[in-house]
Structures are given as structure tokens and as C-alpha cells.
Amino acid sequence: MKSTKLARFALVGLTAFFAHAPLTSAAGGQRPTPTLNPPPPSFVSCKAVGNGTICMGDLTFHEANVDTGITCGSGPSAFNPVDQSFADVHVSFYYDQAGNLTHTTKRIKWYSNQWVNPRTGTAVPYQQHDNYTVVLAIPGDLSTATTTYTGENIFPPAHSAAIFLNVGRVVYGSDGTIEFRAGPQSFLDVFVDGDLSLLVPLCAALV
């Protein structure tokens, strides 16, 4: 569900990163890093530091016409908005001296973002950036991860009156349940609490 970017890049996103081929050796001149658990994704570079190993990397991706998971209107005039966006991602993985992952950070900057009515081509731009910190209660064990999200998702950009607002902080437990939430969290209000009324202004702007 594209409209829940924050959840998608939390627990599920963390696990998906480790599906890539491992990269467990430091750059030239560095002392070798230990075997890392779990191995980091292939697009990062790792180096040994005083208290373990740190791996960092960047990637850019494009999402075109991704289903937002919502329906606007009803009957013959109903439509499902699609998301069009680009993102720059910076990730850091921190391992202890035994080579076990202790925590990660992820910074995502979205740009050229918009929701589009595929029937009419009407688009509503938005701005969004996401920050995630994932801490493992047991080093190396992804099932013990707690994820803290901070960021914002605003429709439309800040120079206009917002018609949909998602700003604040959310903490996800190791099982994916929400342990804490603060600030206006419209996506959670819609997809977790079922308050579909919040979508009315956004859907109206897409007609």
C-alpha cells in the first residue's frame, strides 16, 4: 500500500534490505571487518571503527503509477489515485565488535511527488521526508527490532493550505504494532483507525 510509505519502509523495508548479497570487507587500508550478521546489502560500503563496524550507502529510485490503496468516489465516477514519486535514500548499519547488527538509520527525501487521478490526469503535489531509526534489542536478531519514525507528508506543498497532513513521530514494536504516536497522523487515522472522512478534501482536489 503506497500511501503507507512510513510503515512500508519500517519493518518490512529493513528485512528487504538484507536480501541483497553481503558486503563484509572494509575498503583498502582498513582492518578487515568480521562476518556481519545479518550481512548488509550490496550497495553499501563498510569500515571497521573502534566499537565495531559501520556500513553506509545511498540509492535513488522512482515509483511510477503505484496504487495508493484508496478509492475516491463511488459508482462509475470512482477512481483509484496513483502515486508518482522519486526518492533519495541514505542508510547506515551499525554492528558491534562481534559483527552483530545493533541499529540502523534511514533517511528518505522524496521529490517530484504527486498523486494523480488516472481517469482525468488531475494531479495534487505533496512534500515528504522520512527518518527511521531501528534498534535491535538482541544484536543480530531482526525479530527484536523497534522502529521509530519521524517525518512529514503534506498535501499540497507548504506554500498552500494543507488538505492532508501527516507529521510527527511513530514507534513500531517488534511485531509491527504501534506503541506510540504523536502529531497529526492522517495516514494512520485513515488506514489504522478507519477515518475515511480525512480523504474527502484530497479526493475532491483530484477530481
Protein described:
With 207 residues, the chain is mostly beta strands. It has one domain (2-206). It is built from three helices and nine strands, in the order H-E-E-E-E-E-E-E-E-E-H-H. Strands 1, 2, 3, 4, 5, 6, 7, 8 and 9 form a nine-stranded antiparallel sheet that branches. A hairpin with an 8-residue loop joins strand 7 (145-155) and strand 8 (164-172). It is elongated, with a radius of gyration of 19 Å. The protein starts with a helix and ends with a helix. The model is unreliable at 1-16 and 19-29 (pLDDT under 50).
Key terms for this structure?
207 residues; nine-stranded antiparallel β-sheet; 9 strands; disordered N terminus
How is the secondary structure organized here?
Blueprint: H1 5-17, E1 45-49, E2 52-67, E3 82-95, E4 101-116, E5 123-125, E6 127-136, E7 145-155, E8 164-172, E9 178-182, H2 186-191, H3 200-206
Antiparallel strand pairs: 1-2, 2-3, 3-4, 4-5, 4-6, 6-7, 7-8, 8-9
